[in-house]
# Entry
Amino acid sequence: MALDKKTYLVREHVGMFKLHEAFDILDPDTGDLLALAYEEASMARKLLKLFVNKRMLPFKVHLTDTEDKTILTIQRGFTFLRSRVRVLDSQGRLVGSFQQRLLSIGGRFDLFDEKNEKIAELKGNLIGWNFQFLDLHGKLLGRVTKKWAGMGKELFTSADNYVVALETDTDPKTIGPLLLCAALCVDMVLKEDN
# Structure
């Protein structure tokens, strides 16, 4: 299955004591399941999550089709101040990476290609819930927007929903998967608390 849509809904799974993350990738118009994303977490990592801030721990998230075939993987090693999240294709080859900027209001990431050349940025708004995906000239390529899920879910869980939307003139086959990874990156790096 190719990720070639212009819009996706990323729905994080709800859990009481979540020791690994999981997401459904849906078509927002039909509700059809397009893909899944789940964190590969060893028992040691799950135990560490109980005692160490999740924002510092390494992670590996597989983005798969509905038949569990890996499409992309995002991963990060241990981090202290700034995260660097690598995006790998189904063969394990580097596609690009997101480098968190230090001291940014609302959250900000630079996107690098496989040659480590900057190609775009992901820029959060003041409160860090809405992000713009911009090319090097400042042209808007797409957005990642938090979708509010209701008072109960917002107050009692850390599960978030995001709408990923590409601009009409943005190529969904090349930019779409990266913007989808950006939504997962935002959640895993900025929004996961103990």
